[in-house]
Specification:
The complex is a heterodimer of chains A (344) and B (531). Chain A is α/β, with parallel strands linked by helices. Chain A has helices spanning 54-62, 147-163, 177-184, 196-205, 223-226, 261-266, 281-291, 303-312, 327-343; strands spanning 7-8, 13-15, 20-22, 30-32, 47-51, 67-70, 76-78, 81-87, 95-101, 104-108, 130-135, 167-171, 192-194, 215-216, 230-233, 249-254, 271-273, 295-301, 316-319. In chain B, α2 packs across α10 and α6 (82-89) packs antiparallel against α9. The chains are: A alpha/beta (344), B alpha+beta (531).
């Protein structure tokens, strides 16, 4: 019997026919990488293939690696298997991987969101037979408001704090969330400051996208300069000595987890904005339907629950164990970069 | 409702007490009078009775949300709060209600006597005319768990800021039996006529835990000690020939303790005693388990009265001959109290909590060492000159509890936490070794939810996710590998527990990284701790 086009083994998602891995978590010879978050783009592979927007990002994070950049929908062939990258809309350069062999099509989403964020190339539906989907927020309790409304809330919060002569500190991952927030802040309210780790990533991303002007916080930055401004920082900066310079300040976090009151209380943050780079419940269901896929494999997230519901809807759905961690790994990567930036 | 929901959202949006108090004070100056009264009622645990039970609420919520019941339940396990889950899974509202908080509460009171169909329709119509926070608040009123991170004390402080009335005075006015549906804001808060309400208790004076040894408190002869009894702290009021018994939760519990009603006959009107309710049998203090057979019951059978008779162990006297004597020094209050108790017959269910005047600190630690034998939780240290204050205050009263009993146990099951620990596995089940038919096996003996730092909880959570053996709904069994020291306050034999032992207040003392599961304690080790 033919092995399946893509299989899950101890190293990652493997295409045996082409001898290539998608987002492997152990070192391999050839890896197709969906995006730059650290649970998807790991150290140690001999060769990386990814969208060319993602090349400077993973080089920034992984150092001198051998990497090939591809265009959207540019087909490349490995041992008779056709591969191409489609926009996933998750962060800048994030891709879905389309894999085709003798008319059979599989799509691996990596992480994705459907709503255009004004920064990453918007998600596109790819018709397929088998859809390997993340489901980080695969529960009916997750429903996002339009980005425009959330950003209006964030700007209003900033303006309020400024009126009270306080500095606003908003936490978001160094890669992705931070730039998405910066892109939609209203610069007429006041100056936008960044933590070093965020600014390092901004510099990388400015080579491929436009971002509004931001000011890196350095030793020389004074408390008076910061007052009334907004500071975009990684979550791990919360509670660190670095943040004392912002006093008096008010904190906020922007993440899908902020949908839960408990999550916000646990992180001891003043304000939570529900802003995610993943699909909410309805976006997951709608995008699966739009692919026309009959078989759906759920990877990280509430995958057991999500697969069970998909089976009730009539899909051939199952769960595969991966080492993708959704937002947890990105938290750790952000933390490392934060320490690096604060030391340097 | 919009105004109240906005308030709750504001309270939710800050961790800073000053911001919360300011938001509440602003609300108290702008809201309508009847909404203000209801807000005070809700924030002081005076909710209307639940009109709908949780099972029906869950059933209707999943039907109206259009999702299968199991999916609703899974969501609930992960969100961790029923009202929050319902508020999240229901479809987005298209219209919006303008009814006020008090209108809603009046409807909710009436709803209790409606048929199930009427209740369902009422919920559906209103759920679908509310935004997220309104739904959250509205549903919390239904589930009867209205905790929003604002204590009664903060609420009183805000009310004081809004009205200019002293906090202590307000705390007193807001105690007792009042019906938010009937009382006006003026009558409740603004008018001063405490003589109207015979049942009205004084706010309890509470202590902080002593850190370290008592030597730092100053001269020993300025202090007294007494045992900290492990029962129900209460205030017993005798006025106009009636007895009123309040628990520390400010719940009127008079009906639960008929044996204490006789006190009205023997004690003069205008007497208020601060004391501990304890089971007293065959000349000794019963266990907290014995007392629990009484606390849950509204009606008390003759058998129960015989098996678990309750006495009042008196600590202090707050009112004497109709006058508030809380401003007198502890010495003077005790003098009157002791005379009073000695005058009453020994057959009365009233005893003094023995006070020991200290000569030296050594005396205190010797007495504390006797705590377990005395069935107490440790000692109370009270300054002889102290007045009876309001709420939890540092300085004059300290509790000095004994170290908990402890065993080293193995983590066997884990469940997601609730509230602020949603999404982390923080509710753990622990087991001890027992010799079984097939050799040594682990037997579950206690659950514990607290005692680790947030960082430790995250580590254990991470470990659990990687070491899960089986999933049973929200519960996971894990590889037996981690050992924790579990502390508890008390221990008794129990027929209801698989281990045959019930522990009181089990909690994690520390993570024993240094121990393997083979080194964990046995059930026999645990049973040896039973007094």
């Amino acid at each position: 019997m033919e092995p399946p086009l893509l299989a899950f083994n101890e190293k990652g998602i493997y295409c045996a026919r082409a001898d290539v891995y998608l987002d492997p978590w152990r070192p391999v010879d050839r890896a197709i990488i969906t995006h730059g978050h650290s649970d998807h783009a790991r150290y140690g592979h001999r060769h990386y293939i990814t969208h060319h927007y993602n090349v400077p990002i993973i080089k920034h994070r992984l150092g001198a690696i051998s990497v090939t950049g591809k265009d959207w929908k540019e087909s490349f062939y490995i041992n008779g298997v056709t591969f191409s990258l489609y926009p996933a809309g998750h962060i800048v350069g994030s891709a879905q991987v389309r894999v085709e062999y003798r008319g059979e099509v599989w799509v691996f989403t990596g992480d994705y969101k459907v709503e255009p964020d004004g920064l990453s190339t918007p998600y596109e539906t790819v018709k397929c037979h088998t859809f390997i989907t993340e489901c980080t927020f695969g529960l009916p309790a997750f429903r996002w408001l339009p980005q425009q409304e959330v950003m209006a809330d964030i700007n209003a919060w900033w303006a309020d704090n400024r009126a009270n002569h306080q500095t606003s500190v908003i936490f978001g991952y160094t890669l992705g969330k931070a730039q998405r927030i910066i892109k939609h802040l209203d610069p007429s309210i006041g100056p936008i400051f960044t933590h070093g780790a965020v600014e390092n990533m901004n510099e990388v991303l400015r080579t491929v996208v436009d971002l509004p002007p931001t000011q890196r916080i350095t030793r020389e930055t004074t408390r008076e300069e910061l007052r009334g401004g907004i500071v975009v920082a990684p979550p791990s900066a919360h509670g660190s000595p670095w943040i004392r310079k912002m006093t008096p300040f008010v904190t906020a976090s922007a993440s899908g987890w902020m949908a839960f009151r408990g999550a916000r209380a646990r992180r001891a943050i003043d304000r939570g904005f529900v802003l995610s780079d993943h699909c909410d419940w309805h976006a997951l269901l709608d995008s699966i339907r739009a692919t026309g896929a009959e078989r759906v494999i759920s990877t990280h997230g509430y995958s057991d629950i999500f697969s069970r519901y998909l089976r009730e809807l009539g899909y051939d759905a199952r769960t595969e164990q991966t080492q993708y961690e959704g937002e947890a790994a990105e938290m750790a990567a952000s933390a490392e970069e934060t320490v690096d930036a604060e030391i340097s | 409702m919009r105004h109240f929901a906005e308030l709750i959202k504001e309270l939710d949006s800050s961790n800073k007490t000053t911001v919360k108090v300011a938001a509440l004070a602003r609300y108290f100056t702008t809201a309508g009078d009847s909404d203000k009264v209801w807000t005070i009622a809700l924030l002081s645990h005076r909710r209307p009775p639940r009109p709908v039970n949780a099972t029906l609420l869950r059933q209707w919520a999943h039907e109206i949300a259009g999702i299968p019941q199991w999916l609703f339940e899974e969501s609930y396990h992960i969100v961790g709060d029923l009202a929050e889950t319902i508020a999240l899974v229901l479809p987005v509202s298209t219209n919006h209600t303008e009814k006020s908080l008090s209108e809603f509460l009046q409807e909710i009171i009436r709803l209790k006597s409606c048929s199930d169909d009427e209740k369902r329709d009422y919920l559906k119509v209103n759920w679908l005319a509310m935004n997220y926070y309104e739904r959250l608040v509205f549903t919390k009123l239904m589930t009867g768990s209205f905790r929003i991170g604002v204590s009664q004390k903060l609420m009183t402080r805000a009310l004081s800021a809004a009205t200019g009335i002293e906090e202590d005075l307000l705390a007193h006015r807001l105690m007792g039996n009042w019906d938010p549906a009937k009382v006006s804001f003026r009558e409740l808060v603004l008018d001063s006529k405490p003589e109207d309400v015979l049942s009205r208790p004084y706010p309890f004076y509470l202590s902080h835990a002593l850190e370290g040894e008592p030597e730092g408190l100053g001269q020993p002869h300025e202090w007294s000690i007494e045992h900290k009894w492990d029962g129900i702290r209460s205030q017993t009021i005798i006025r106009a020939g009636q007895v009123y018994i309040w628990s520390r939760g400010e719940e009127l519990v008079t009906d639960k303790y008929p044996e204490l009603h006789a006190l009205a006959t023997y004690l003069p009107d205008g007497t208020v005693i601060d004391g501990e309710l304890l089971v007293w049998k065959d000349g000794t203090i019963g266990s907290f388990n014995d007392l629990q057979t009484r606390t849950g019951r509204k009606t008390v059978s003759a058998t129960l009265l015989k098996n678990a008779p309750v006495i009042l162990k008196a600590y202090d006297l707050l009112e004497w001959e109709g006058s508030d004597i809380r401003h007198l020094p502890y010495d003077s209050r005790r003098e009157i109290l002791e005379k009073l108790v000695h005058q009453t017959g020994a057959e009365l269910p009233l005893q003094l909590s023995e006070r020991i005047l200290l000569q030296n600190w050594e005396q205190a630690s010797q007495e504390r060492d006797r705590a377990r034998e005395m069935h107490s939780e440790g000692l109370m240290l009270k300054r002889n000159s102290s007045t009876y204050q309001v709420g939890r205050k540092k300085g004059d009263w300290w509790k000095w509890k004994i170290e908990p009993l402890s065993v080293d146990a193995v983590l066997t099951y884990a469940m997601r936490g609730h509230g602020r620990r949603t999404n982390l596995f923080t509710d753990y089940t622990f087991a001890l070794w027992q010799d079984g038919a097939n050799g040594r096996e682990l037997v579950t003996f206690a659950k514990a939810y607290s005692g680790l730092t947030d960082a430790e909880f995250r580590k254990v959570d991470d470990w659990i996710k990687k070491n899960t053996l089986e999933r049973f709904g929200p519960v996971r069994s894990v590889v037996p590998q981690l050992v924790f020291e579990i502390g508890f306050e008390g221990i008794a034999l129990s027929g209801r527990h698989k281990s045959g032992v019930a522990t009181r207040f089990p909690r994690i003392l520390r993570w024993r990284h240094d121990k393997t599961i083979e080194e964990a304690d046995t059930l026999e080790d645990l049973k040896r701790l039973i007094p």
